[in-house]
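Good morning C.,

I know you're traveling, so I'll keep this short. The sequence:
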Amino acid sequence: MLPSYLSDTNLDSIKLVATDMDLTLLADDKSMPAGVDERIDTLAKNGVLFCAASGRPALALRESFPAHHQDMALVADNGASVYLRDELVYRDLIDRDLYHEVLALATATEGSVPVLCAFDDAYVLERDRCHEDVVSIYYRSITYVESFEELDVDSNKISIYFPGWDSKQKNDEVYSPAFASRLYLTCAGNEWLDFMNIGVDKGSGIRHLAQHLGIDLSDIAAFGDTYNDIPMLDIVGHSYVMANAAEHMHDHGKFLAPSNNEAGVLTVIDHIVDAMGAQPEPVAANQAKR
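The tokens, ready to paste straight into the viewer:
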């Protein structure tokens, strides 16, 4: 068992706080915990930048932080695009022939719903429109196509949704044998599998952001709960695994944070700002969970 976040010391050097979204910052019902805006403001007053690091595209992340996206950082698409105060500072592109190969296999594989990610836009097969209720949670601008074959767009990520919640099995049996030597594959929970270029992940995104900001990785705090968070947790100075994470994730964190349903990220942020001699901003009385 990891030691509690209360055991983390020397917090006054932290310059960046990065958090995953689903099952980390967000509760199980995908609601945002009350008080996020106040914590972002308090961190900023103490010279600490807030960053959302997610498999979600930037457009969806901006909508999640309507009051602060212009003041924070985004490591979007599992590190395939990085934004600082709404300015794109890094992006990565997958070879067109290669993404067509992935899409062809996914189209032919039962129980797979492929999504071609093109930064703020996403392309989905018309046959899979029935899954819009799930896909639209993450991709706001969706174009439905009869076939992927004629698409010729810049893409930084391919995602596959598995209605059977068997992403790990499908990865091990179907997709990893076909593509692991040419692409980085990572499960984003039980229902999603993401493909990026080798060397592109949340860890590389955080590295690009840190380099752009001129800060050390040792001065970064990060929160995560599952496989696609591992590259980020492994490289930062202050890594927090959520209490709701699977046991294997404990190998990739230094400290244990309270669960996502207990607003664990905010609790640790309060611990950080308290160590800096600051007090968190009071939560507005009328602020509801969203």
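Safe travels,
E.
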